[in-house]
Request: fold
Amino acid sequence: MKILVVRLRLIGDVVFTTPLLRGLRRRYPEAHIAYVVEPAAAPVVQGNPHLNEVIVAPRARGLARITADISLARRLRRGRFDIAIDLHGGPRSAWLTWSSGAPTRIGYTIPGREWMYTHRVERSPDLAPRHSVLTQWDLLGPLGIEACDPSRDAVEMMADSTVSARLDHRLRAVDIRPEHRVIVIHVSAGNAFRRWPPESFRDVVVALVRRDPCRRVILTAGPSDRDAARSIGDAARRELGPLASSVPDIGELDLPELRALMARTAVYIGGDSGPLHIAATTTVPIVELLGPTLPERSRPWRDPRWYSETLDVGALPCRPCRQRHCVPGDYRCLTGITAERVTEAAERAMTFEAHV
Reply:
């Protein structure tokens, strides 16, 4: 038995597929399972114990994209897969699934693409209060795989001892020692609807450090928000004065390094983004800031023994939304979360962590 799984694009969405890989392996313990993923999210599934093969689909443009996709399609067809599952549903992933030639091809019922699949599954509406893990798990229905439970089928990303050693060196370089409690605050967001105000991040950093000078706050960000992270860090250091060294800049981290950092962190704070869901693959206490997204859809999917707290403003007439146009114009679903609430949630999380 050979099984092909296709999930392109975003890091967080790829993290959300990892419980499904465990389900497939449990159902087909002897199968060869391959995963098609794009370069940015490939580290999430590389080394996954339930996979035999990770196939990286290039992110090319123009004619190079067409050439690369044709080459990839030929490779998939040569693989002679028995089952192909499209966890994405986009035009490219549907075409690759169809091109594999697998006798059983499973995908969502999407107009214009459903003919590419032999088995079609209704997809939950984008704004439905239903977790993304469950929406993707629905695609296992035609294979007779039982329901998903986060205590058994949590999100996963493998630890790497080489990466951990590299991270140790980077932490020592900024004088972070074993007695320091490290706090990670991720300031990036995919769009303005998920971007908490910089001054609110600054206030949380300052409050947490002043409560315990033995804390070290590390600000992380995606490539497009690194300047914002530096600006928030600079503002916090100016306000902290003699305690400015409590907010070190350790430079850019790749995904495996970020995962290694989270595994030794006292609390992770951030919005609905890929790094938050990577944090959920560890036992770190999490404080999640949610704006237009419902917690039922994007909460950390892991064993409930590990602390996770979601902060939002509650019900609003415009929430959830499709994140294309803010009707009130002030992003109140996110900006209404105060720095004081986040600080207190972080303190609760660290108290829990101290008593595990």
Observations:
- Residues 163-354 form a domain with the Rossmann fold fold (CATH 3.40.50.2000).
